[in-house]
Amino acid sequence: MIDARGVLAFLAAVEAERCLNPHSLLVKRHGETVLEAYWAPYTPDDRPLLYSVSKTFTATAMGFALAEGRLALGDRVVDHLAGSVPTDVSERAAEQTVHHVLSMSTGHDTDTLDSLTARGDADFAASYLAIAPQQPVGSRHVYNNGASWLAGELVRRVTGESLLAYLRPRLFAPLGIAPTWDVDSSGRELGFSGVHATTRELAALAESYRTGGAGVLPDGWAAQVGTRHVATDAAESAEWRHGYGYQVWISREGYRLDGAYGQYALVLDDLTITITSAQAAGSQPLLDLVWANLIPAVRSSRSDPEADARLATRLASLELRRPKDAGIAGPWVQHGPLANWPALAVGAEQINLPDVRDVTLVRDGAGWALRFTTAGVTYDLNAPSGRWHRTTLAVDGVTVPLAMAVGTLSTGAARVHLCFTATCHVLRLELGPRGGHDAWETSPLSYASLRQFGSS
Q: pTM of the full predicted structure?
Protein backbone atom coordinates (compact mmCIF):
# COMPACT_ATOMS: atom_id res chain seq x y z
CA MET A 1 0.00 0.00 0.00
CA ILE A 2 1.22 3.49 -0.91
CA ASP A 3 -0.13 7.02 -0.65
CA ALA A 4 -1.99 7.30 -3.96
CA ARG A 5 -2.61 11.02 -3.44
CA GLY A 6 1.13 11.60 -3.15
CA VAL A 7 1.80 9.67 -6.36
CA LEU A 8 -0.93 11.62 -8.15
CA ALA A 9 0.70 14.85 -6.95
CA PHE A 10 4.03 13.63 -8.31
CA LEU A 11 2.51 12.80 -11.70
CA ALA A 12 0.75 16.17 -11.86
CA ALA A 13 3.96 18.03 -11.02
CA VAL A 14 5.88 16.13 -13.69
CA GLU A 15 3.19 16.77 -16.29
CA ALA A 16 3.27 20.50 -15.53
CA GLU A 17 6.95 20.68 -16.55
CA ARG A 18 7.14 20.43 -20.34
CA CYS A 19 10.83 19.59 -20.20
CA LEU A 20 10.17 16.43 -18.15
CA ASN A 21 9.08 13.46 -20.22
CA PRO A 22 9.02 10.21 -18.23
CA HIS A 23 8.76 6.94 -20.13
CA SER A 24 8.60 4.40 -17.32
CA LEU A 25 8.57 4.21 -13.53
CA LEU A 26 8.99 1.16 -11.32
CA VAL A 27 9.20 1.33 -7.52
CA LYS A 28 10.03 -1.64 -5.31
CA ARG A 29 9.70 -1.43 -1.52
CA HIS A 30 11.50 -4.16 0.40
CA GLY A 31 11.71 -6.07 -2.89
CA GLU A 32 7.99 -5.92 -3.73
CA THR A 33 6.68 -3.88 -6.66
CA VAL A 34 4.41 -1.13 -5.31
CA LEU A 35 4.21 1.07 -8.42
CA GLU A 36 4.79 0.39 -12.10
CA ALA A 37 3.86 2.71 -14.95
CA TYR A 38 4.62 3.20 -18.64
CA TRP A 39 3.90 6.21 -20.82
CA ALA A 40 2.61 5.11 -24.24
CA PRO A 41 4.03 4.24 -26.66
CA TYR A 42 6.59 2.65 -24.30
CA THR A 43 5.77 -0.79 -22.91
CA PRO A 44 7.34 -3.16 -20.35
CA ASP A 45 9.02 -5.07 -23.19
CA ASP A 46 10.99 -2.11 -24.57
CA ARG A 47 14.73 -2.10 -24.02
CA PRO A 48 15.70 1.58 -24.35
CA LEU A 49 19.28 2.77 -24.36
CA LEU A 50 20.32 3.48 -20.76
CA TYR A 51 23.29 5.70 -21.60
CA SER A 52 25.60 6.01 -18.57
CA VAL A 53 23.66 3.57 -16.43
CA SER A 54 25.80 1.21 -18.53
CA LYS A 55 28.77 2.25 -16.39
CA THR A 56 27.32 0.36 -13.43
CA PHE A 57 27.04 -2.78 -15.57
CA THR A 58 30.74 -2.30 -16.35
CA ALA A 59 31.52 -1.85 -12.66
CA THR A 60 29.57 -5.02 -11.90
CA ALA A 61 31.70 -6.96 -14.37
CA MET A 62 34.77 -5.52 -12.66
CA GLY A 63 33.40 -6.67 -9.29
CA PHE A 64 33.26 -10.26 -10.48
CA ALA A 65 36.77 -10.04 -11.96
CA LEU A 66 38.10 -8.68 -8.66
CA ALA A 67 36.33 -11.40 -6.67
CA GLU A 68 37.84 -14.07 -8.92
CA GLY A 69 41.32 -12.70 -8.29
CA ARG A 70 41.94 -11.72 -11.89
CA LEU A 71 43.10 -8.27 -10.74
CA ALA A 72 42.96 -6.07 -7.62
CA LEU A 73 41.77 -2.54 -6.87
CA GLY A 74 45.35 -1.42 -6.16
CA ASP A 75 46.76 -2.84 -9.40
CA ARG A 76 48.23 -0.36 -11.84
CA VAL A 77 46.22 -0.45 -15.06
CA VAL A 78 49.41 -0.49 -17.16
CA ASP A 79 50.24 -3.88 -15.67
CA HIS A 80 47.16 -5.38 -17.29
CA LEU A 81 47.47 -3.70 -20.69
CA ALA A 82 50.42 -5.47 -22.25
CA GLY A 83 51.10 -4.28 -25.76
CA SER A 84 49.19 -1.05 -25.27
CA VAL A 85 51.52 0.90 -23.00
CA PRO A 86 53.29 3.72 -24.88
CA THR A 87 57.05 3.74 -24.51
CA ASP A 88 56.84 7.34 -23.30
CA VAL A 89 53.90 6.82 -20.94
CA SER A 90 53.85 9.58 -18.35
CA GLU A 91 54.52 8.88 -14.68
CA ARG A 92 51.02 9.96 -13.74
CA ALA A 93 49.37 7.84 -16.42
CA ALA A 94 51.32 4.86 -15.12
CA GLU A 95 50.21 5.56 -11.54
CA GLN A 96 46.52 5.03 -12.28
CA THR A 97 45.04 2.01 -10.55
CA VAL A 98 41.83 0.08 -10.98
CA HIS A 99 40.43 2.09 -8.06
CA HIS A 100 41.22 5.40 -9.77
CA VAL A 101 39.53 4.30 -13.00
CA LEU A 102 36.39 3.06 -11.22
CA SER A 103 36.08 6.21 -9.10
CA MET A 104 36.98 8.60 -11.95
CA SER A 105 39.80 10.04 -9.88
CA THR A 106 42.40 9.64 -12.62
CA GLY A 107 43.78 13.17 -12.36
CA HIS A 108 42.54 14.31 -15.76
CA ASP A 109 41.09 17.81 -16.06
CA THR A 110 38.47 16.79 -18.61
CA ASP A 111 36.72 13.73 -19.97
CA THR A 112 39.20 11.80 -22.10
CA LEU A 113 36.65 10.29 -24.51
CA ASP A 114 36.82 13.04 -27.13
CA SER A 115 40.61 12.78 -27.21
CA LEU A 116 40.40 9.02 -27.67
CA THR A 117 37.98 9.41 -30.54
CA ALA A 118 40.00 12.20 -32.15
CA ARG A 119 43.16 10.08 -32.17
CA GLY A 120 41.49 7.57 -34.47
CA ASP A 121 43.59 4.74 -33.04
CA ALA A 122 41.91 1.34 -32.88
CA ASP A 123 43.87 0.69 -29.68
CA PHE A 124 41.88 2.92 -27.33
CA ALA A 125 43.86 1.65 -24.35
CA ALA A 126 47.10 2.98 -25.86
CA SER A 127 45.39 6.27 -26.72
CA TYR A 128 44.06 6.56 -23.15
CA LEU A 129 47.47 5.95 -21.61
CA ALA A 130 49.00 8.55 -23.95
CA ILE A 131 46.85 11.23 -22.26
CA ALA A 132 48.88 12.37 -19.25
CA PRO A 133 46.74 13.36 -16.23
CA GLN A 134 47.09 17.07 -15.60
CA GLN A 135 46.66 16.73 -11.81
CA PRO A 136 48.00 14.20 -9.29
CA VAL A 137 46.25 10.87 -9.66
CA GLY A 138 43.58 10.45 -6.99
CA SER A 139 43.43 14.16 -6.18
CA ARG A 140 40.05 14.98 -7.73
CA HIS A 141 36.98 13.69 -9.53
CA VAL A 142 36.30 14.53 -13.17
CA TYR A 143 33.53 12.72 -15.01
CA ASN A 144 35.46 10.58 -17.44
CA ASN A 145 33.81 8.34 -20.03
CA GLY A 146 37.26 7.26 -21.17
CA ALA A 147 37.97 5.83 -17.73
CA SER A 148 34.73 3.83 -17.87
CA TRP A 149 35.73 2.50 -21.28
CA LEU A 150 39.09 1.48 -19.84
CA ALA A 151 37.40 -0.32 -16.94
CA GLY A 152 35.53 -2.44 -19.47
CA GLU A 153 38.70 -3.02 -21.44
CA LEU A 154 40.49 -4.21 -18.30
CA VAL A 155 37.75 -6.79 -17.75
CA ARG A 156 38.12 -7.96 -21.34
CA ARG A 157 41.89 -8.22 -21.03
CA VAL A 158 41.96 -10.20 -17.76
CA THR A 159 39.04 -12.51 -18.61
CA GLY A 160 39.48 -12.99 -22.35
CA GLU A 161 35.73 -12.47 -22.79
CA SER A 162 33.42 -9.72 -23.92
CA LEU A 163 31.54 -7.91 -21.18
CA LEU A 164 28.26 -9.52 -22.22
CA ALA A 165 29.71 -13.01 -22.36
CA TYR A 166 31.38 -12.56 -18.99
CA LEU A 167 28.23 -11.20 -17.31
CA ARG A 168 25.71 -13.67 -18.73
CA PRO A 169 26.38 -16.63 -16.41
CA ARG A 170 27.41 -14.50 -13.43
CA LEU A 171 24.74 -11.76 -13.43
CA PHE A 172 22.16 -12.00 -16.20
CA ALA A 173 21.21 -15.67 -15.80
CA PRO A 174 20.84 -15.53 -11.99
CA LEU A 175 18.70 -12.37 -12.27
CA GLY A 176 16.73 -13.72 -15.23
CA ILE A 177 17.54 -10.72 -17.43
CA ALA A 178 18.87 -10.34 -20.97
CA PRO A 179 20.23 -6.84 -21.67
CA THR A 180 22.03 -6.07 -24.90
CA TRP A 181 25.04 -3.79 -25.39
CA ASP A 182 26.06 -1.57 -28.30
CA VAL A 183 29.58 -2.13 -29.60
CA ASP A 184 32.18 -0.02 -31.37
CA SER A 185 33.62 -0.66 -34.82
CA SER A 186 35.95 -3.28 -33.32
CA GLY A 187 33.09 -5.19 -31.72
CA ARG A 188 33.83 -4.06 -28.15
CA GLU A 189 31.05 -3.04 -25.78
CA LEU A 190 31.33 0.67 -25.10
CA GLY A 191 31.67 0.35 -21.33
CA PHE A 192 30.59 3.94 -20.68
CA SER A 193 27.26 3.58 -22.53
CA GLY A 194 25.34 1.28 -24.85
CA VAL A 195 23.34 -1.03 -22.57
CA HIS A 196 19.71 -1.61 -23.57
CA ALA A 197 17.49 -3.11 -20.88
CA THR A 198 13.85 -3.18 -19.87
CA THR A 199 12.78 -1.20 -16.85
CA ARG A 200 12.21 -4.45 -14.97
CA GLU A 201 15.69 -5.67 -15.87
CA LEU A 202 17.26 -2.48 -14.59
CA ALA A 203 15.17 -2.73 -11.42
CA ALA A 204 16.46 -6.29 -10.92
CA LEU A 205 20.05 -5.03 -11.02
CA ALA A 206 19.20 -2.21 -8.61
CA GLU A 207 17.57 -4.69 -6.22
CA SER A 208 20.66 -6.89 -6.25
CA TYR A 209 22.65 -3.87 -5.10
CA ARG A 210 20.05 -2.80 -2.53
CA THR A 211 20.17 -6.22 -0.89
CA GLY A 212 23.96 -6.27 -0.78
CA GLY A 213 24.27 -8.82 -3.54
CA ALA A 214 21.28 -11.11 -2.94
CA GLY A 215 23.49 -14.12 -3.54
CA VAL A 216 24.38 -12.81 -6.99
CA LEU A 217 26.99 -10.06 -6.59
CA PRO A 218 30.34 -10.81 -4.95
CA ASP A 219 30.36 -10.40 -1.18
CA GLY A 220 30.92 -6.77 -0.21
CA TRP A 221 30.87 -5.43 -3.75
CA ALA A 222 27.58 -3.55 -3.38
CA ALA A 223 28.96 -1.74 -0.35
CA GLN A 224 32.15 -0.81 -2.21
CA VAL A 225 30.23 0.49 -5.21
CA GLY A 226 27.99 2.65 -3.02
CA THR A 227 30.80 4.12 -0.91
CA ARG A 228 31.76 7.76 -1.44
CA HIS A 229 35.28 7.33 -2.80
CA VAL A 230 35.85 10.87 -4.04
CA ALA A 231 34.30 14.30 -3.48
CA THR A 232 32.30 15.98 -6.25
CA ASP A 233 31.81 19.39 -4.60
CA ALA A 234 32.45 21.25 -7.86
CA ALA A 235 29.55 19.62 -9.75
CA GLU A 236 27.20 22.10 -11.39
CA SER A 237 23.98 20.62 -9.99
CA ALA A 238 23.24 19.95 -6.34
CA GLU A 239 22.28 16.31 -6.90
CA TRP A 240 25.79 15.57 -8.15
CA ARG A 241 27.67 17.10 -5.19
CA HIS A 242 27.25 14.20 -2.76
CA GLY A 243 30.26 12.30 -4.07
CA TYR A 244 31.07 9.47 -6.46
CA GLY A 245 31.35 5.76 -5.79
CA TYR A 246 32.38 3.11 -8.28
CA GLN A 247 30.52 4.16 -11.44
CA VAL A 248 27.53 5.44 -9.44
CA TRP A 249 26.59 8.82 -8.00
CA ILE A 250 26.11 9.14 -4.26
CA SER A 251 22.68 10.62 -3.49
CA ARG A 252 21.27 12.58 -0.55
CA GLU A 253 20.28 9.07 0.57
CA GLY A 254 21.77 5.95 -0.93
CA TYR A 255 23.19 6.18 -4.43
CA ARG A 256 22.08 6.38 -8.04
CA LEU A 257 22.73 4.65 -11.33
CA ASP A 258 22.50 7.59 -13.71
CA GLY A 259 22.25 7.97 -17.49
CA ALA A 260 21.82 10.92 -19.83
CA TYR A 261 18.37 12.48 -20.19
CA GLY A 262 17.07 10.86 -17.03
CA GLN A 263 17.73 7.11 -16.97
CA TYR A 264 17.93 6.23 -13.26
CA ALA A 265 17.92 3.52 -10.68
CA LEU A 266 17.93 4.95 -7.15
CA VAL A 267 19.16 2.49 -4.53
CA LEU A 268 17.98 3.21 -0.98
CA ASP A 269 17.86 0.98 2.10
CA ASP A 270 14.18 0.15 1.64
CA LEU A 271 13.44 1.20 -1.95
CA THR A 272 14.64 1.01 -5.50
CA ILE A 273 13.18 3.54 -7.94
CA THR A 274 13.79 2.88 -11.61
CA ILE A 275 13.01 5.60 -14.16
CA THR A 276 13.50 6.00 -17.88
CA SER A 277 12.79 9.39 -19.40
CA ALA A 278 13.78 12.11 -21.85
CA GLN A 279 14.50 15.31 -19.99
CA ALA A 280 15.29 18.24 -22.19
CA ALA A 281 16.63 20.61 -19.54
CA GLY A 282 18.78 18.70 -17.08
CA SER A 283 17.98 16.08 -14.50
CA GLN A 284 17.72 18.11 -11.30
CA PRO A 285 14.01 19.05 -11.67
CA LEU A 286 12.82 15.44 -11.94
CA LEU A 287 15.01 14.24 -9.10
CA ASP A 288 13.75 17.07 -6.91
CA LEU A 289 10.19 15.87 -7.52
CA VAL A 290 11.19 12.28 -6.78
CA TRP A 291 12.58 13.27 -3.39
CA ALA A 292 9.87 15.77 -2.53
CA ASN A 293 6.79 13.86 -3.72
CA LEU A 294 7.40 10.31 -4.86
CA ILE A 295 9.60 8.88 -2.12
CA PRO A 296 7.37 10.05 0.76
CA ALA A 297 4.33 8.69 -1.11
CA VAL A 298 5.70 5.20 -1.72
CA ARG A 299 7.03 4.97 1.85
CA SER A 300 3.59 5.80 3.22
CA SER A 301 0.84 3.28 3.96
CA ARG A 302 -1.99 5.83 3.90
CA SER A 303 -5.25 4.20 2.85
CA ASP A 304 -7.57 6.11 0.52
CA PRO A 305 -9.71 3.88 -1.75
CA GLU A 306 -10.99 6.83 -3.78
CA ALA A 307 -7.45 8.04 -4.47
CA ASP A 308 -6.36 4.46 -5.26
CA ALA A 309 -9.06 4.29 -7.94
CA ARG A 310 -8.06 7.66 -9.39
CA LEU A 311 -4.42 6.57 -9.50
CA ALA A 312 -5.28 3.32 -11.29
CA THR A 313 -7.21 5.30 -13.91
CA ARG A 314 -4.38 7.80 -14.27
CA LEU A 315 -1.72 5.12 -14.71
CA ALA A 316 -3.76 3.43 -17.43
CA SER A 317 -3.93 6.66 -19.46
CA LEU A 318 -0.30 7.79 -19.33
CA GLU A 319 1.27 8.71 -22.67
CA LEU A 320 3.94 10.94 -24.13
CA ARG A 321 2.88 14.30 -25.48
CA ARG A 322 1.64 13.96 -29.05
CA PRO A 323 0.15 16.36 -31.58
CA LYS A 324 -3.53 17.19 -31.28
CA ASP A 325 -5.53 17.15 -34.51
CA ALA A 326 -7.41 20.17 -35.84
CA GLY A 327 -8.81 18.10 -38.73
CA ILE A 328 -6.95 19.84 -41.58
CA ALA A 329 -7.09 17.73 -44.73
CA GLY A 330 -3.70 18.24 -46.41
CA PRO A 331 -1.82 16.72 -48.16
CA TRP A 332 1.61 18.11 -47.24
CA VAL A 333 4.67 17.84 -49.46
CA GLN A 334 8.20 19.01 -48.72
CA HIS A 335 10.71 18.72 -51.56
CA GLY A 336 14.33 18.57 -50.48
CA PRO A 337 15.69 18.44 -46.95
CA LEU A 338 13.88 19.56 -43.83
CA ALA A 339 15.31 22.57 -42.02
CA ASN A 340 16.13 22.23 -38.35
CA TRP A 341 13.85 24.25 -36.11
CA PRO A 342 14.77 23.85 -32.42
CA ALA A 343 11.55 25.59 -31.34
CA LEU A 344 9.76 22.33 -32.17
CA ALA A 345 11.37 20.90 -29.03
CA VAL A 346 11.63 22.47 -25.59
CA GLY A 347 15.16 23.25 -24.45
CA ALA A 348 16.84 20.62 -26.59
CA GLU A 349 20.28 21.06 -28.13
CA GLN A 350 20.16 19.91 -31.74
CA ILE A 351 22.87 17.45 -32.76
CA ASN A 352 22.96 14.20 -34.76
CA LEU A 353 19.89 15.01 -36.85
CA PRO A 354 19.14 12.47 -39.58
CA ASP A 355 19.02 13.80 -43.13
CA VAL A 356 15.24 13.60 -43.60
CA ARG A 357 14.06 14.94 -46.94
CA ASP A 358 11.35 14.71 -49.60
CA VAL A 359 8.54 14.22 -47.11
CA THR A 360 4.95 13.54 -48.10
CA LEU A 361 2.14 13.28 -45.55
CA VAL A 362 -1.40 12.33 -46.58
CA ARG A 363 -4.51 11.95 -44.48
CA ASP A 364 -5.67 8.46 -45.41
CA GLY A 365 -9.22 7.93 -44.21
CA ALA A 366 -9.02 7.70 -40.42
CA GLY A 367 -5.26 7.58 -40.50
CA TRP A 368 -2.07 8.90 -42.02
CA ALA A 369 0.47 7.85 -44.61
CA LEU A 370 4.00 9.26 -44.28
CA ARG A 371 6.77 8.93 -46.85
CA PHE A 372 10.28 10.29 -46.42
CA THR A 373 13.80 9.71 -47.67
CA THR A 374 16.97 9.48 -45.63
CA ALA A 375 20.44 8.29 -46.65
CA GLY A 376 19.08 7.77 -50.15
CA VAL A 377 16.38 5.29 -49.11
CA THR A 378 12.65 5.99 -49.12
CA TYR A 379 10.44 4.71 -46.31
CA ASP A 380 6.68 4.51 -45.84
CA LEU A 381 4.86 4.57 -42.50
CA ASN A 382 1.17 4.43 -41.70
CA ALA A 383 -0.68 5.23 -38.50
CA PRO A 384 -4.25 5.76 -37.32
CA SER A 385 -5.24 9.21 -36.14
CA GLY A 386 -5.50 10.17 -32.48
CA ARG A 387 -3.04 7.82 -30.83
CA TRP A 388 0.48 6.45 -30.86
CA HIS A 389 0.98 3.63 -33.34
CA ARG A 390 3.81 1.11 -32.97
CA THR A 391 5.57 -0.05 -36.12
CA THR A 392 9.06 -0.78 -37.46
CA LEU A 393 11.45 0.30 -40.17
CA ALA A 394 13.84 -2.06 -41.93
CA VAL A 395 17.09 -0.10 -42.31
CA ASP A 396 20.06 -1.87 -43.91
CA GLY A 397 18.82 -5.20 -42.62
CA VAL A 398 18.26 -3.88 -39.09
CA THR A 399 14.81 -3.68 -37.52
CA VAL A 400 14.21 -0.22 -36.06
CA PRO A 401 11.23 -0.14 -33.66
CA LEU A 402 9.35 3.12 -33.49
CA ALA A 403 5.96 4.66 -32.84
CA MET A 404 4.27 7.43 -34.82
CA ALA A 405 1.69 10.02 -33.83
CA VAL A 406 0.30 12.68 -36.19
CA GLY A 407 -1.87 15.76 -35.80
CA THR A 408 -2.61 19.11 -37.41
CA LEU A 409 -2.62 22.73 -36.27
CA SER A 410 -5.15 25.46 -37.02
CA THR A 411 -2.37 27.22 -38.96
CA GLY A 412 -2.59 24.49 -41.59
CA ALA A 413 0.60 22.75 -40.51
CA ALA A 414 0.88 19.04 -39.80
CA ARG A 415 3.07 17.61 -37.06
CA VAL A 416 4.55 14.14 -36.84
CA HIS A 417 6.24 12.63 -33.78
CA LEU A 418 8.49 9.63 -34.36
CA CYS A 419 9.43 7.88 -31.12
CA PHE A 420 12.39 5.49 -31.44
CA THR A 421 11.50 3.05 -28.67
CA ALA A 422 14.93 1.38 -28.41
CA THR A 423 16.09 4.77 -27.14
CA CYS A 424 14.58 7.72 -25.28
CA HIS A 425 14.49 9.90 -28.40
CA VAL A 426 11.58 11.45 -30.30
CA LEU A 427 11.98 13.22 -33.64
CA ARG A 428 9.41 15.92 -34.41
CA LEU A 429 8.53 16.94 -37.97
CA GLU A 430 6.38 19.89 -39.06
CA LEU A 431 5.09 20.47 -42.57
CA GLY A 432 3.12 23.53 -43.50
CA PRO A 433 3.04 27.19 -44.59
CA ARG A 434 6.55 27.84 -43.25
CA GLY A 435 7.99 24.85 -45.07
CA GLY A 436 9.31 21.64 -43.58
CA HIS A 437 11.17 21.49 -40.27
CA ASP A 438 12.46 18.90 -37.81
CA ALA A 439 13.95 18.76 -34.32
CA TRP A 440 14.81 16.21 -31.68
CA GLU A 441 12.99 16.47 -28.38
CA THR A 442 16.33 15.32 -26.97
CA SER A 443 19.25 14.74 -29.31
CA PRO A 444 21.03 11.37 -29.43
CA LEU A 445 24.53 11.74 -28.05
CA SER A 446 26.12 9.39 -30.56
CA TYR A 447 23.58 7.91 -32.97
CA ALA A 448 23.63 9.68 -36.32
CA SER A 449 21.87 7.22 -38.66
CA LEU A 450 18.49 5.52 -38.33
CA ARG A 451 20.17 2.11 -38.45
CA GLN A 452 21.72 2.77 -35.05
CA PHE A 453 18.26 3.10 -33.53
CA GLY A 454 17.62 -0.57 -34.22
CA SER A 455 17.14 -3.25 -31.62
CA SER A 456 20.40 -4.94 -30.67
A: 0.96
